[in-house]
Amino acid sequence: MYSKKKIGFLEAYSIGVGGMVGGGIFAVLGLTITLAGGGAGVSFLLAGLIALLTTYSYIKLSLRYPSEGGTIEFIVQGFGNTVFAGWVNTLLMVSYIIMLALYAYAFGSYGSVLFAGVEIAWLEQMLIALVLVVFVVVNLLGAALTGKAEDWMVFYKAFYFDSF
Hints:
Elements (H helix, E strand, L loop, with lengths): L8 H19 L1 H8 L3 H25 L6 H9 L3 H34 L4 H20 L2 H20 L2
Helix pairs in contact: 1-5, 1-7, 4-5, 5-6, 6-7
């Protein structure tokens, strides 16, 4: 049932782009405009610069500590195999759960309006639950399927929204 295949470059790239486009544009665009108002463009510019610095750091860390552990491996390398590193890794996992909840909530809100024309609470909740279940199942089936699913979603987002 579980795939032992690894993700390739395209899948890793798609996961990164999918997270930025899905979270950075679809999920938080309205919130950013509400909070930043006219400064939303500057906010996104600063976020882009921070993303570039983060990418540079990940490249350097990946070259220095080649591993399949990613961020968790970098934390262990920086702080050792300590309780503190365990706490930081736990916070990292909690942040992933919070991001997934944000994406699922945005999907439910947008999906309700897309399918019904208005926000309907029960439809939003059903779509939120559906997206969570689908992604849990995809992840349980292995990294290769997760990567391929992300490839498809990024391709769809890029070409579907490009047609507008």
